[in-house]
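debug: dumping io for the single-chain case to check the tokenizer round-trip. Nothing else runs in this session.
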Amino acid sequence: MPSSQRMPVVFIGHGSPINTLEDNRFTGAWRALAAALPRPDAILVISAHWFMAATAVTAMARPRTIHDLFGFGRGLSEFQYPAPGHPELARQVVSAVRPRWVGLDEDSWGLDHGTWSVLAQMYPQADIPVVQLSLNATKELAYHQEVGARLAPLRDQGVLILGSGNVVHNLRRFDPRRGETGLDWAVRFDEAARALMTSAPGRIGELRSHPDWEEAVPITDHFLPLVYIAALAEQAAEPASVLVDGYAGGSLSMTCYLSGMACPPVPDGKGAALLPESAVPADQTNL
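debug: decoded output
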């Protein structure tokens, strides 16, 4: 891969997949960020939605668009994000993370909605190569911090590393009547995460002992992408800044972080898209 300027790292609180198609304060911030960033040579996404019992990276030339959602209507169930893959970058991820093992996925996964719901706003032309790194559900936070820090050399090769999840994500407590407000415990946890991300991101693991952890992070899938970005910010000695913040439905944090450059101005607009009742299951699932 040709050398380029060092890329920032970013965490996007992606919220509802409906944000793929909406114009609001958050999607406007994602577009403003893309306009301010140097154009990446490639994008490495750590998405909440590839959460499995192994660490792997997509290595196919043409990743498929995965419709890992339900209850959102045809506009999203038929949405396509035909970005090319980047097998060479996948192999570089494997090398960077050694001695930790990363498998090359040449035919199984693709681009899930944690990736395309954000990139559809940031890079709608889908003309930048994209690979995904899975989240190993069997590992503790320290493992993910270590793997995240090992990805740092890719930044000097023009790779934008993007974590896509939510700092607070509890669908059991989601209530669309709450609109853009956050429940007390969600606000407390989100503010504790902000204090660490903006001053000492290497201490992000301390949130595991926060009194609101169980409510804010009932499953680690959406939180772990933040750990990767925190590790990269710590490795570069560049604490993150808040790109845009807010809540959706009481129990989702929409806070986004950027490290490595100044945040662009955020346009005004309405709040983030909410989850329709048809898409919120009774049990906690990986939405």
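debug: round-trip ok. Residues 176 and 249 are 5 Å apart (CA to CA).
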